[in-house]
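User: I'm new to structure prediction. If I give you an amino acid sequence, what do you actually give back? Let's try with this one:
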Amino acid sequence: MKTFKNIILVAMMVALSANTFAQDNVSPERKHAIDSLALEKVRDLSKYISIIGDKKTPWSEANRVIDRTLELFIEGAQMGVSSLATPEVEYYGIRTYLERLMALNYDKVKIEWFNIEYISDLERQPDGRYVGVITIYQRFEGSMGDKMKYVDTTKKDITVYVERKQTQIGGRLIGFWDVLLGDVRVAETMP
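Assistant: Good question. You get back a string of structure tokens that encode the predicted 3D arrangement of the chain. For your 191 residues, that looks like this:
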């Protein structure tokens, strides 16, 4: 009798886990929506970096935007920073990177992102999350007075994490897919 109950219990657990797995499969329509959300978050990051780097942005506004930017990332994510002057790439926590960007010693900073596109499809990981990579090109211009002081273009790869989450609305649990950004790795820096 006890063995029969164990068999029933195991069968129910298998059925529930199979049902959960089926719910986590991503349809082509859902994948398109997730891809769009991921690209939108990368565009938001681009906009926030431009605001933070702009020397005309008031300190209080830049700090508010830093807080908004941090909401885009997973905990512990890092941003790669490169320069034409050295082949090494340095990595900083996102907050540290943004605070350093805000404090750059230029009169004017202009940062533009372009050619934003997926380079890898979302792939399911053992932990249930999906991971992909978005590539962007960043043009950085820093000037002092009327003279251009420094210009470079950097190719960066941004890791994107997509995971299933739940929230409670009106007493019901509602499942949804959330997109967070991970490390931003420098692939190449050019003049």
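You can read the tokens as a compact description of the fold. Here is one thing that stands out. Residues 29-190 form a domain with the Nuclear Transport Factor 2; Chain: A, fold (CATH 3.10.450).
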